[in-house]
Amino acid sequence: MLRKKTNGVARRPQRTSILSEVAGKSVDRRAFLRGSGLAIGGLAAIGAMGGTVTKASAATAAQGAVQTLKSVCTHCSVGCTVVAEVQNGVWTGQEPGWDSPFNLGAHCAKGASVREHAHGERRLKYPMKKENGEWKRISWEQAINEIGDGMMQIREESGPDSVYWLGSAKHNNEQAYLFRKFAAYWGTNNVDHQARICHSTTVAGVANTWGYGAMTNSYNDIHNSQAIFIIGGNPAEAHPVSLLHVLKAKEQNNAPLIVCDPRFTRTAAHADEFVRFRPGSDVALVWGILWHIFENGWEDKEFIRTRVWGMDQIKEEVAKWTPEEVERVTGAPGSQLERVARTLANNRPGTVIWCMGGTQHTNGNNNTRAYCILQLALGNMGVSGGGTNIFRGHDNVQGATDLGVLSHTLPGYYGLAAGSWAHWSRVWGEDPEWLAARFDKITGKDGKEKSLQNLSGIPVSRWIDGVLEDTENMDQPNKVRAMVLWGHAPNSQTRMTEMKTAMEKLDMLVVVDPFPTVSAVLHDRTDGCYLLPATTQFETYGSVTASNRSIQWREKVIDPLFESKTDHEIIGLFSKKFGFHDRMFRNIQLEADGITPNIEDTTREFNRGMWTVGYTGQSPERLKLHMANQHTFDRTTLKALGGPADGDYYGMPWPCWGTPEMRHPGTPNLYDMSKSVADGGLTFRARFGVERDGENLLAEGVYSKDSEIQDGYPEFTMQMLMDLGWDGDLTADERAAIEKVAGSADKVPGVNWKTDLSGGIQRVAIAHGCAPFGNAKARTVVWTFPDPVPLHREPLYTNRRDLVADYPTYEDRHAYRLPTLYASIQKNDFSKDYPIILTSGRLVEYEGGGDETRSNPWLAELQQDMFIEVNPRDANNLGVRDGEQVWVEGPEGGKVKVMAMVTERVGEGVAFMPFHFGGHFQGEDQRSKYPDGADPYVLGESTNTAQTYGYDSVTQMQETKATLCKIMPA
Prior knowledge:
The protein is of the alpha/beta class. The strands form 10 sheets. The protein has a 7-stranded mixed beta sheet with strand order 5-4-18-17-16-6-7, with helices on one face. Strands 26-30-27-29-28-34 form a 6-stranded mixed beta barrel.
């Protein structure tokens, strides 16, 4: 994946050697940007400084004093601290955060190059619109007015759901929260972000197993693992700094590293055991491992008896997966899986790690639940060194998910039920009837009128169908007519040929981003397309949530570049235009411009509402204290040893219960009963009732340390406090707040730990050693899902026609307002014309859709070509040689022209393409369609042009890891 671009001869130093002299001469920021950005590797920087480098005097040295500011890398979810060196408002240098317990003084290639944000000339510099086929510069005032007028006209004609608000994992927590609130005030649930297409199946699968849909432990806690099992993940490239923690366990504990993947990845190169298996057969593989565990009695029987429900039904399914059948379906030999099972059984606690290789499937929710069940069978949950460590992709995809930038829920996973809207209306101080009136209504098939306020919106994976589908097949009155892509790379989505059509059918396309993205060039629109320059996160400040649930506070490094604006200012401008600014920000302080909401006050507002996941105790003040005292936190436990944050866990990983005044330390490892809840311990959440088919769903005789209820118990309500006689522990203010939420005396008993705005119920429960959400068993059978017990199902586009009869996909169904196809696609045999399995993944040099990283010269130099990995046997049979151009075509007709990389990384019959490229479309170079000077250095075809239809049965996750293709010499 890295190709040598130069010979071994030393060259002149890179730009940093020139730019480091800035302190010696007074240079304004604009001149610095011009000089450092416009001629990469050349002498422009010297020219900007008058052509010479002069000796610094005492006076100029004083003027050039270096200010150091802490931010967090804006790429993956490890949460690496970036220490920025700023002189006269110019970002002149950076160091990794040596005090950070996450990156420990390390950076990957992407993190090391983030300073390019401060002077990247490929950025969007000012608002633009396309007019008669040409990009035209416009003012912010004109942009907001034209876009706003057009959207309000669409709203009047077709309803609020005809405008789709697509948010971003690149927003900080405050911006993400405001974005979801903004969509609610506009009157739509047609709002979503990248989590839908990366880990939505994780969130759904894991949350429905034991209560919360997030990483259970942490990168640092892997130090305690005795075994490490990675499936569908390549952290060496996707999360490089995380490998520090993985390799520490491998070396320190002699922990065996097992990697299961269709490709021999850079992560697999570190493995003690590499299991190559067929893409799309994860459930079969895990059941194959469990077959050996159950056959030999290696499961943790006492853990299962006391803390797990439904394992007998799992055993019935697993019994079908003999070594012979597993090898037939997955290709993995039974003897190897027996060795894997024995290794996991003999090295406990072990951790399971997965990424998008496991999630991006039509049965992705089955995969993630199977991974969880493996850990439950081994008793590896709720223990240091164990857990399911889910590595998220973007810097704040965890936070944006938690803050509700999703089409099926409000912030904090409250859902869309009437009670959920009532809760957030109370937090916002809003009239719930006014809010409800903002939403459209439809008449259901039962003839009853339904409000779209309570109906999940269209997910981002399906927005193109919101444009193209016939309205009679949709659960909303009209099609999507305006699309807002706010911090989103469209080339990260499948079916790009249809996406091009959808973009061209829209009345209006709006891109809000620091870069123009593929959204600017994919289509052939001549008008009705707007580009609004947003800042990066280094030009603003606020909180961001790492994959391990820790929240960190970024400082602003530099002021907004060019004419870019922060996302929360742009939200303020649109809410002003739409007439609900005063209502939306009634409880949030505004900046001096009277438009922009204050970040700290926004944090405090979601602190007042997100009781479900414990985003309530992390005040801005506590978060800033942690960032300023990173050196006081233990590198493994994350606990502060003395200092002003003594006893806290770094970043107060959620749930951080109660109010900030309670000073809960955060929860480092979910479901760990060895600690008291007050010190970060936890039980499994009682989220699914207390009984099922006459069987107890609550824990059996086990409980967290110091619990006064020494058995399982349901979630806490006011009625439960009264029954226990603990309601007398509430303060007068807490009781008054509970009564206000209830609205009447007879409803007081029904107020629970999620809706009590005082935090009193949580405080009292924890004071008695109890978890506010109860103490239950994890469930291995999810009776509300299409497959209550996880099943293997063949991908829609499979070349194993012999397996379709035994393991068919679902029947076609209707979900998220749209028809979704399954069996009607799988019944067609595409394998003769498209015989090779196509999968996709990440490269170490780039991230996401790649617009930002391919616009960075330091990264662009490292990887200049889009490529496809082809096994040597396949290449020889196809007449393809290494380095040659080939066509890759998918069964839906999309095709891409890329370079062939002939390699044994992929097995015979499997091909791989990275998903970071864009700017070429089916052989056409689209560079001329970008605004002048805003085209990324490196362009290439998107793998998703050739990728196909396919969506998870629960979340509508796209399938990108198991489709078919054919490869031909170009």
